[in-house]
TrEMBL record:
This is Probable 6-phosphogluconolactonase. It is an enzyme of class 3 (hydrolase). Signal peptide: none annotated. One of its GO terms (molecular function) is 6-phosphogluconolactonase activity. Pfam families: Glucosamine_iso. Belongs to the glucosamine/galactosamine-6-phosphate isomerase family. 6-phosphogluconolactonase subfamily.
Length: 317
């Protein structure tokens, strides 16, 4: 098992050298993706909208309580305000857990979440966070080379990892030399090794790895990680890491943590911005009934779930 993890560390390319890789644009949602997005038109609401209790806690932020909120739901006037608060939340949590446990395990998604972490690589956090304690993982990854524009690793590297002094041996990227199936197995083997050596905690309740923090985005169709609405992978409850070859959002081949791993987390931040995501936010947090449960509705961690929303994403609440 150890050899698999060593292979993964060796597989990490801390400094993509090609300048074309560094200047690649971020992930674009294509028209093909929008063509398959969930039809929300048949929703039945049990309530009038805009009825949830808003409590303004800061000039630019309100906390709301909704029928299905399981923890703090923070709504910000702008995405910029949201990014400022997300940086403080992440830095405070990381420093507290690093002091308590001597390490901090954090899981990144891809997509817009990574840009929303931009304030964390600035002052005061660049100096106040103990980056040497961080161990970084991915909740999902596309099966592409690490210098490909669709790579979640490349996105995290460009926007975040290249700007902070996390030791490269603490960054556990997915092996991009393998098929989807083999890469998922390889990553799961790596996680098992790191649980055994106590780098990653284990949930006493579920037996699955218990990460200190998952920083996750959500797609406009309500997908999280690479778990898409209506796809059988959503129901995988034995594997830790699984793979998909027919993702409705390109690229088609990906690997993903399964829901039991996601839900064993000590903390999850669900970070969502933009009017295009207001429908799944409404479904996940209001008392509306929907027959086809969205993956985001299944995020129910044994620890704390905190929503970070901008005004547009919360506009239907
Ligand atoms: O494909 C993916 O999409 C989701 C959502 O991305 P966003 O750009 O709409 O925020 C992302 O969380 C996931 O990691 C990624 O692989």
């Amino acid at each position: 098992m150890a050899s698999s993890c060593r292979a993964l560390s060796a597989n990490l390319r801390p400094l993509p050298t090609s300048s074309s890789a560094r200047s690649l644009p971020h992930i674009q949602l294509t028209s093909r993706f929008f063509a398959v997005k969930t039809d929300f038109s048949s929703l039945r609401s049990n309530s009038n909208s805009k009825r949830f209790r808003f409590r303004r806690t800061e000039a630019s932020m309100a906390e709301i309580v909704t029928p299905k909120s399981r923890g703090p739901v923070k709504v910000f006037d702008t995405e910029e305000d949201m990014a400022v608060s997300l940086a403080k939340y992440t830095a405070d949590l990381a420093n507290r857990i690093s002091l308590e446990r001597g390490s901090f395990t954090v899981v990144f998604s891809g997509g817009s979440l990574v840009k929303s972490l931009r304030k964390l690589v600035e002052q005061p956090y660049i100096d106040s966070v103990d980056w040497s304690k961080w161990h970084v993982f991915w909740v999902d990854e596309r099966v592409v080379p690490k210098d490909h524009p669709d790579s979640n690793y490349l996105l995290a590297y460009t926007e975040f990892l290249s700007k902070v002094p996390i030791p490269s041996g603490n960054v556990y990227s997915v092996n991009d030399a393998l098929s989807a199936e083999a890469a998922a197995d390889d990553y799961e083997t790596c996680l098992k090794h790191l649980v055994k050596t106590k780098t990653i905690d284990q949930s006493i309740n579920s037996g699955f790895p218990k990460f200190d923090l998952m920083l996750m985005g959500m797609g406009p169709d309500g997908h999280i990680a690479s778990l898409f609405p209506g796809h059988p992978l959503v129901h995988e409850n034995e594997k830790w890491v699984t793979f998909i070859k027919d993702s409705p959002k390109p690229p088609p081949e990906r690997i993903s943590f399964t829901l039991p791993v996601i839900n064993s987390s000590a903390n999850i931040a669900l970070v969502v911005a933009g009017a295009g995501k207001a429908n799944p936010v409404y479904i996940a947090l209001s008392d509306v009934s929907n027959s086809d449960v969205l993956p985001v509705q299944l995020v129910q961690p044994e620890g704390e779930l905190t929503w970070f929303l901008d005004k547009e994403a919360a506009s239907k609440l």
